[in-house]
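Researcher: Next sequence.
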Amino acid sequence: MPFEDELGEALRRAGDGFPADRHALVQAGERRGRRLVARRRAAVIGGSVLSLALIGGAGAYAGGLLDGTGRSEIAAPPEPSGGPSGGDGTPVPELPPVPRGTGAVSAEQMVEVLKGLLPEGTLSVTRASGTDGSSAGVTGVYDDGKGGAEINVSVLRLDPNGVMAHTETLCSEKNLPEGDDCTTEQLADGSKLLIEQRHLPPSLTPGLKEWRAALATPQGYLVKFYESNSPFGLYPGNSPSAGATAITRTDPPLSPARLKALVTSDKWHPALNDLPAANAGPRG
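Model: Next structure:
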């Protein structure tokens, strides 16, 4: 037998010669178990005391949870004088209220104006707003008999010299892919007009197109119109039959000439005049 095996066998025999004291082992195990139980109890009691202390502190802070009739009366935490403050204690300035129009032009009137500027067809309105806010507009599905298409028109006021007037009439891309087109034009009255026809990324829905027009005037008017070749617009995946089946027509319904006529129409002026004038915006 090799030396290593002989050594292992000798150690095993030596161990067998010292029988374990089973009674001592049981007692030691019992003591260890009691210590573990005591630790768990202490942890539970400590957590309960901490929870009660927190609840008691909250109750003291609230100034009394119940009155004599059993109704709860929890006081709000006091605010420092001077109004709300930030995390560092500095006062937070109150935001001015959002300017709104008088509501002289209703949502129904906005719909009628849009219908009058569209070619013959049907318009199913999904959302419309009048001039009782900071903007007004109409969203719906228009069908000229060649398939439904989502359309949207919105009117609002902006700073004619601000960056928004520039970006709203800016082409989405400099290098347009084949089949897309974008033109910007300055009209005789100084207004800026954008007409853009583009395909949206195939990852969204293959064949989905977005055509849009935007007019920014020196008076601070902004009229925007958008149309697609799907009744679900930019989100054809929301349709019951998602994917390419959501494309209902080859192109959106309105031609570039129709888009220009729609956004430059003075029929939007009553709504624009009723909306609040925009504050001076960032230059650039």
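Model: The first strand starts at residue 122 and ends at 129. Strands lie at 122-129, 135-143, 148-157, 181-186, 192-199, 209-216, 221-228.
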